[in-house]
Design goal:
Elements: E1 5-11, H1 31-45, E2 51-57, H2 61-72, H3 82-93, E3 100-103, H4 114-124, H5 126-139, H6 147-154, H7 157-168, H8 182-202, E4 208-214, H9 218-228, E5 232-235
Parallel strand pairs: 1-4, 1-5, 2-3, 2-4
Length: 240
């Protein structure tokens, strides 16, 4: 019996997002962007995923799959987000009858929001604030603005490592002030541990799972998945 394979595909949020840093890809529905998305889909299809998981709250799984069913029946126009443009379209190409929501976004252990911690660093730790900004600039320094080149860059070892470095250094914020940065970072780890647990619950022997998720999650999730010894990790860079 083989371990299930899993490939975490880091992506940007096509519709914009509440994240402090984000990518503006312009009009996703333009002919050029749709051509580029098709190229990415062709590349990802070669992995042959048996299940596709997406960054949608698990509590919304039923509603999301109602939308997916409408799409496969030709009754839904896709929206400008990566769940629809990549997740739905790839699942349909692979003849999947459903996709899988695995995210969690509750209050949990959080005592501060990401924006609060970032502002605190700006006012109290300008060196750490500057470091976080430099990491974000690195992560968004795409070699070109084509969709597939952006995916390749986000899923490179350099970007995955830089995102992990950026997040772990939030622990240095406010050490003398009740560890202020921890107020969000503990929640970030909690969220990703829950995503890992949801993936472990979803996986069956011989599965080939593809997880489509914001690129900043990739490093920490790959670490959890590898440490669990439950999965065979596949690197998205090999398919992009």
């Amino acid at each position: 019996m083989n371990k299930p394979k899993i490939m975490v595909v880091g992506c940007f949020h096509m519709a914009g997002h509440s994240d402090l840093h984000g990518t503006n890809a312009g009009d996703i529905f333009s002919d050029e962007r749709q051509k580029e998305i098709n190229e990415t889909l062709i590349n990802l299809k070669t992995y042959g995923a048996t299940k596709i998981a997406v960054e949608v709250k698990k509590t919304n799984n039923e509603n999301m799959n109602k939308e997916y069913k409408e799409y496969t029946n030709g009754k839904l126009n896709l929206k400008n987000n990566e769940v629809h443009q990549i997740g739905f379209r790839l699942a349909k190409e692979l003849n999947h009858d459903k996709i899988h929501a695995i995210d969690w976004m509750e209050q949990g252990a959080a005592t501060h929001g990401a924006g609060e911690v970032f502002e605190y660093a700006k006012n109290n730790h300008p060196n750490i604030h500057q470091f976080i900004e430099s990491c974000a600039d690195f992560l968004e320094n795409y070699p070109s603005q084509s969709i597939n080149d952006m995916f390749r860059y986000m899923n490179s070892a350099a970007c995955i490592n830089k995102a992990t470095e950026m997040y772990i250094n939030h622990a240095r914020i406010g050490v003398a002030d009740d560890y202020y940065g921890m107020g969000w970072l503990i929640w970030w780890y909690q969220r990703n541990l829950i995503i890992f647990a949801n993936l472990a619950e979803l996986a069956e022997p011989d599965d080939k799972i593809m997880l489509l998720i914001g690129a900043s999650h990739t490093g920490i999730l790959n670490g959890f998945l590898a440490d669990s010894a439950l999965f065979e990790l596949v690197h998205a860079a090999d398919y992009l």
